[in-house]
Write a structure and sequence with these properties.
Layout (H helix, E strand, L loop, with lengths): L18 H7 L2 H4 L3 H17 L5 H19 L12 H13 L1 H5 L6 H37 L4 E6 L2 E7 H26 L1 E2 L15 H8 L3 E2 L3 H6 L2 H27 L7 E2 L18 H25 L13 H22 L3 E2 L1 H9 L5 H10 L4 H18 L8 H5 L9 H5 L1 H7 L8 H16 L1
Parallel strand pairs: 3-4
Antiparallel strand pairs: 1-2, 5-6
Bound molecules: arginine.
Length: about 450
């Protein structure tokens, strides 16, 4: 990246750029990853310019084949990126002109790097959203499969991280599915606003050429064109929106991670994360650490940070384009890279997670998780709910003192707390009775989990 080349804007200047300033202001080190989208945008722009008579067909053909060559050089790692040419846009244009001569100099007619970069990022982000959506779906499918397999598996449900009521593991997995489903919808919605074309806004005010923006948009697969040139060159809302969706998605993955880390501990011992997703300790031979979920939880910090970074980047900018916007790329790229990585590793990991059914069920038995069921039973037998609550509270206290769960007490022991307790009380005190009773849409009953799984599969189709 050392080769000195003359800058396209050198005409107005009498002194060369300070060497440090050149490096300081350049973005080619990171925006070269936009090269395919930059070339795609240029191809469409050239075709449109030809259509309106600004370029001849011969010039267009030469530009298109020149751009193919540039793309091939970059893909092969043979392209000489030059810092003195500042960014991906000027590097590609300069090389094109080197390859094809004067026709290359005509490509930039009726456009500016300001609408060009905004277009490139949108094309790039659109593609990434689709890839992220596919990875997210793979994770959702893994969760659905796990939920179906473990629809009857009982675990303690928690509030305040204290045992609350028994739930099914399948139900718990489907809770995660729901969070991800909202994330998927947010990405789909965000994509609608990403897929609008700013090209044609030129530097800020539009262009005096009779451009056909609809044509360019069609060639590039955009759903429409931006309505205001000043807004279009300066708007990065779409990137912020994406980062917000990413931050929320990562926040969900971070919550899952926290649960997996707890569940994999010797104290919970609910799941086994396969060895291939864990690492050991260099000093403690017994350790098997849940590194993958820990790292995902940790990466949530930087992704949340990128959202704040972009919001702060925009907050003081007057219209229209400002160089500040060059700072949008690294946070966006880092968000994408890490989000994709987290989703991939999670989809693979969840497909192989081992569930320790007996341990979960044993944990659900401890902790009086059927206490609410006993209260509901009393209510059904005519006891007002507040009184029932009191009765069960006393029974639990007795259980704590005698070291027995409600279901482990003798009938006489339980019956001393209320006349409304009969022999059939044990039907509701079992874990299975408790979960099966919650048999409505959104409830934890195995039958409901299976129904939710079937609906989830349908929703993924739609
Ligand atoms: N590298 C610039 C960016 O990322 C491209 C646009 C530069 N435009 C300009 N007028 N300096 O935003």
């Amino acid at each position: 990246m050392t080769e000195q080349q003359s800058k396209p804007w050198a005409g107005r200047f009498t002194e060369p750029t300070d060497a440090f300033v050149e490096a300081f202001t350049a973005s080619v080190g990171f925006d070269q990853r936009l090269y395919r989208h930059d070339i795609e945008g240029s191809r469409a722009h050239a075709q449109m310019l030809t259509h309106i008579g600004v370029l001849t067909q011969a010039e267009c053909d030469s530009i298109l084949s020149g751009l193919d060559k540039v793309a091939a050089e970059i893909a092969a790692g043979e392209f000489q990126w030059s810092v003195s040419l500042e960014d991906v846009h000027m590097n590609i244009e300069a090389r094109l002109t080197q390859l094809i001569g004067d026709a290359g100099k005509k490509l930039h007619t009726g456009r500016s790097r300001n609408d060009q970069v905004a277009t490139d990022i949108r094309l790039y982000l659109r593609e990434e959203i689709d890839a992220i959506g596919a990875e997210l779906r793979r994770l959702q499918e893994a969760l659905i499969a796990l939920a179906e397999r473990e629809a009857d598996t009982i675990m303690p449900g928690f509030t305040h991280l204290q045992v609350a009521q028994p739930v099914t593991f399948g139900h718990h997995m489907m809770a995660w599915f729901e969070m991800l489903q909202r994330d998927a919808q947010r990405l789909v919605d965000c994509r609608k606003r990403v897929n609008i074309m700013p090209l044609g806004s030129a530097a800020l005010a539009g262009t005096s050429y009779p451009i056909d923006r609809e044509m360019t948009a069609r060639l590039l697969g955009f759903d429409g064109v931006t309505e205001n040139s000043l807004d279009a060159v300066s708007d990065r809302d779409f990137a912020i929106e994406f980062c917000a969706a990413a931050a929320l998605l990562m926040t969900h993955l971070s919550r899952f991670s926290e649960e997996l880390i707890l569940w994999a501990s010797a104290q919970f011992d609910f799941v086994d994360i396969p060895d291939s997703f864990c690492t050991g300790s260099s000093i403690m031979p017994q350790k098997k650490n849940p590194d993958v979920p820990e790292l995902v939880r940790g990466k949530t910090g930087r992704i949340n940070g990128h959202l704040i970074c972009l919001l702060t980047l925009m907050k003081g900018q007057p219209l229209a384009y400002n160089k500040d916007n060059q700072e949008d790329k690294e946070p966006l790229f880092d968000t994408i890279d890490n989000l994709r990585g987290c989703l991939k590793v999670y989809a693979d990991m969840m497909a192989t997670l081992q569930v320790k059914r007996d341990n979960m069920e044993r944990a659900a038995i401890q902790g009086f998780s059927t206490a609410t069921d006993l209260a509901d039973y009393l209510v059904r037998n005519g006891v007002p709910f507040r009184d029932a609550h009191e009765v069960v509270g006393k029974a639990v206290r007795h259980g704590v003192e005698s070291g027995k769960d409600l279901g482990e007490m003798a009938f006489e022991e339980l019956a001393q707390f209320s006349d409304a307790i009969h022999e059939d009380v044990f039907d509701v005190l079992t874990l299975r009775g408790s979960v099966s009773a919650r048999d409505h849409i959104g409830g934890t009953a195995p039958a409901q989990v299976r129904a939710a799984v079937a609906r989830a599969r349908q929703r993924l189709q739609g």
